[in-house]
Amino acid sequence: MDPVVEALAGFMGFLSWIMVGFALPHRYWKESTMDGNIITISTVYENLWMSCATESTGVHTCRDFPSLIALSGYIQATRGLMIASIVLGTFGIVGTLIGMQCSKIGGENYVLKGRIAAIGGVFFILQGLCTMIAVSWYAANITQQFFDQFYAGIKYEIGQGLYIGWSSAVLALCGGSCLLCACISNSPGEKTPYPYHPPSRGQVRSTVATSQTPSNYGRNAYV
């Protein structure tokens, strides 16, 4: 496998894992601006764990969601998918570090190391899929409530945390796909070619014994 492609794919996977860890506790998954009186304008925003409000006077208030069971189903599913994404990304990083050619872990068996790197790429792809499903599902509920004319609650808009999650999912999918395709396409070439030694052919030396037939006849015999 090309070490440059391997390093680039590993870097994209590691960066996507960092972004997932940054997006999960991010406060601005959805936000809305509410007009109060002439002076007070409050901004309400939520994430997967709490709901916050900030007034123009500088007062900042946050409250955690009181009950896990009372939460909407999509919020619980999004939590699980994001946590699973972090776990899968951790396995992807470990597999990539072990399978890299510059790593001394695993010896010099490059065929085995290539397979381990490919497994790391699969974990990165699974991480990207979990993140993409979680973020897109959350955003779909925001847009559905926003365009619903009969929805009486606060209408939110897409926050910064969702964009970070989408970027992380794209990086994880690209990095995992590059790592997997590079390992699969170059796996036959990693086999150690054995030099061909033609069989030694013994040279058959036929020695013809030239025995001089003693002549029983002298010159006088032809007289």
TrEMBL record:
Chain intervals for the UniProt region annotation (Disordered): 194-223
Topological category with respect to the lipid bilayer: Multi-pass membrane protein
Stretches that traverse the bilayer: 7-24, 81-100, 116-140, 160-184
Keyword Lipoprotein: no
Keyword field: Cell junction, Cell membrane, Membrane, Tight junction, Transmembrane, Transmembrane helix
Compositionally biased intervals (Polar residues): 203-223
Entry GO terms, CC: bicellular tight junction; plasma membrane
Localisation: Cell junction, Tight junction; Cell membrane
InterPro entries: Claudin, Claudin_CS, PMP22/EMP/MP20/Claudin
GO molecular function: structural molecule activity
Family from the record: Belongs to the claudin family.
Function recorded in the entry: Claudins function as major constituents of the tight junction complexes that regulate the permeability of epithelia.
Name by which UniProt lists this protein: Claudin
Native organism: Nothobranchius furzeri (Turquoise killifish)
